[in-house]
Amino acid sequence: MIKPLILAVDIGGTKTAFGFVSEEGKIIHHDHIDTGQSADPSELIGRINQAVEEAFESLRKEYSLVGIGIGAPDANYFNGTVDFAVNFKWKGVIPLAKLFSESFHLPAVLTNDANAAALGEMYFGAAKGMKDFILITLGTGLGSGIVANGKLLYGHTGFAGELGHTIIIQHGRMCKCGRKGCLEQYCSSTGIVKTYLEILKNDGKELPENIYDIDSRYIYEKAMGGDPAAFYAFNYTGELLGFALANAVAFSDPEAIFLFGGLAQAEELLFNPVNISFEKNLLEIYKNKVKILPSGLAASTAALLGAASVAWDERKKTISDV
Amino acid sequence: MIKPLILAVDIGGTKTAFGFVSEEGKIIHHDHIDTGQSADPSELIGRINQAVEEAFESLRKEYSLVGIGIGAPDANYFNGTVDFAVNFKWKGVIPLAKLFSESFHLPAVLTNDANAAALGEMYFGAAKGMKDFILITLGTGLGSGIVANGKLLYGHTGFAGELGHTIIIQHGRMCKCGRKGCLEQYCSSTGIVKTYLEILKNDGKELPENIYDIDSRYIYEKAMGGDPAAFYAFNYTGELLGFALANAVAFSDPEAIFLFGGLAQAEELLFNPVNISFEKNLLEIYKNKVKILPSGLAASTAALLGAASVAWDERKKTISDV
């Protein structure tokens, strides 16, 4: 018997991952392509389609694709659109779910990549059984998915949980969103690179030969190798993140906050300063109650599992409506 | 036939209001007493009991009290306790619902006064039919009640929605909670008084004869009379509040934010700077979508209606369980 699979797609600022996911959350196959910087989203969808065709060829005898779950930054679950994305060249409101659906001839559902990761964590990861938690994705930007009362918070227009764009330092670093001092300008892969370069500059140190090669991985390795500037960059990043998370707790009083993505893989180097700053800045009633934890899912698959779980959920709703 | 009423109690830092509320949300009678600053909460409960006895005397033939709904700052709905209250002399964890229940021989339910006001707004005020909104109380402190997906956000331990204790200015004004720069140190009746006195001092102006007579009402009247320092105090307060609310929108994406309490009665004097700063600081996707509105309920009764609605709701649950 042919088994149904969801095509899960996770569109990031740099890479776009895709995978085929069963109803039990098993990833049959996954891969990624470069997101690229075309102003036309159809260009990316065309390349995804081609990559999926090739990857699915050998699975066709056993499986069939029944739907698409897409995670993307600035995505709107209600409308199926990506609105004013700041990490892509796309302009205005992009009907991404519709474009995917037309390209693949399959039903498609779209959600914020951080919301997708939060659902993935709840269904298949370390947040199983939790009803109130926050998941923070530390990638090119900073995304967040907030679960309250056992449900993902979508808000009135589908844009709840944009903690990366809370202003953390008034008149701070310029953000792609056009405002200044957004959290993601400090606490993200790009944020820590800016911090590291600032520290080197302020210390009068020579900048590395090709500064465009510097990423959070580079800074991690420098810090582990004893570079004080790199170590301090992690400290500063963690301090600000801990502060921001303490403020977030005053909003939704979560049981735990999960850190997910590239930066979170730095483990103690990031978690230590986050925890110290977090507890220091918490209101008394929350102290020693809220755990900051690493995601329970592999970084490469959590967003896919999340995107897939939204699609599976949607499929069940549609079938039961018939 | 004897009609049932809920005794609604709203405990504030300065005054404690009480009233008798019907199931339809009609307030049969209401009054208030001074909260006082006794370290023993039983002292306050004893005085409330006495005042209730006297007020209820003439109603006894027609009505009977069937339960108590209490709103208080730092109250925990789950436990029925007030934990580490910063606006009272009470110490540690106070089992307020139990103390009320024992004093009155009636079932008692406790909730945060701001949460109570939010429920009041949803059932009887300007938030009727809304599923996602935030209510901000601007009193001695700054309280907040957050409604998401049509439900009040309680969080994992019952302490969601403490926006007054998000740190808005790092290393800012000392707060009663022991930390520095909390929102309520700026945006509240006490906050605006501090701002006004700071402005007078910085301008080298003479301070008024008895600075302890200065409250938000005094500053309002000064501003309406053309005092630039008072006008600027409202501007500064509104600017910070608008900034904080723009950050709050990135969390729960509400349809509207309601401002409630003494300061909100300053109307344009507060709402104008709030609105300008709010729209300026909003992320693009939220701009011109979120309304900042005055509460639809009278300041004197909203918290009572909210506290009563929690008690009525609780009573229905209890009866249907039998």
Structure, briefly:
Chain A is of the alpha/beta class and 322 residues long. The first copy, chain A, has helices spanning 41-56, 96-104, 113-124, 189-202, 216-224, 228-252, 268-281, 302-321, and strands spanning 3-11, 15-21, 27-34, 63-72, 75-76, 81-83, 93-94, 108-112, 133-138, 142-148, 151-152, 256-260, 291-294.
Give short descriptive properties of this protein.
homodimer; 322 residues; alpha/beta; 5-stranded mixed beta sheet; 13 strands
Distance between the amino and carboxyl termini of chain A = 23 Å
Count all strands of chain A and give the number.
Answer: 13
Estimated share of beta-strand residues of chain A: 15-25%
Major sheet attributes of chain A: 5 strands, mixed
- Write down the secondary-structure element order of chain A: EEEHEEEEHEHEEEHHHEHEH
Overall spatial form of chain A: globular
Radius of gyration of chain A: 20 Å
Main interface by residue count: A-B, 44 and 44 residues
The quaternary organization reads as homodimer
Category from helices, strands and their pairing of chain A: alpha/beta
Return residue spans of chain A where pLDDT drops below 50 for at least 5 consecutive residues: none
- Helical stretch tally of chain A: 8
